[in-house]
Amino acid sequence: MSTYDNDNIFAKILRGEIPSFKVYENDDTYCFMDIMPRSDGHCLVIPKTPCRNMLDATPAQLAACMATVNKVANACMTAFGADGITLQQFNEAAGGQEVFHLHFHILPRHDGQRMRPAGTMGDMDAIKGHAEAIAKAMG
Ligand code: AMP
Fold first, then answer.
1. How far is it, in rounded angstroms, from Cα 89 to Cα 55?
2. Atom from ligand 1 closest to the CA of residue 42
3. Residue 36 Cα, ligand 1 centroid: separation in angstroms?
4. Which of 56, 75, 115, 117 is the most buried (most CB within 10 A)?
5. Mean pLDDT of all residues in 17-32
6. What 3-state DSSP class applies to 66?
């Protein structure tokens, strides 16, 4: 497995070098919107410290991410009146990973609605509104 690349896009987001729609952060994790949302409210939780994916993550990094996933996913249920949440996480290219900084996808779901295809840029105003709605539901 390759080593961690400090110039991956999520490392740049953490350093504030490229913009993101923030949902939530604490000392150990950051949550922001996916700009190619496969459902309304699709957001990503990442650790603030470097690791490529689940395979090289420490138990502390995984635990911190899961605590944030739990909080944000519950807020998504409220914010979107969702019926469920899909949680996705990919490891290495063969496992479907494209950005090599550990991340968990939170996808609010509604009964009978399919996820949109991957790779389509979302409407930035709508995404901004969704970030605000999730943040508000977190109190
Ligand atoms: P994967 O590594 O397969 O889990 O996919 C990476 C995810 O990051 C995809 O869902 C992309 O839409 C998303 N993504 C890529 N660049 C950005 C960005 N600058 N801001 C937010 N999300 C991004």
1. 11
2. 10
3. 7
4. 75
5. 98
6. helix
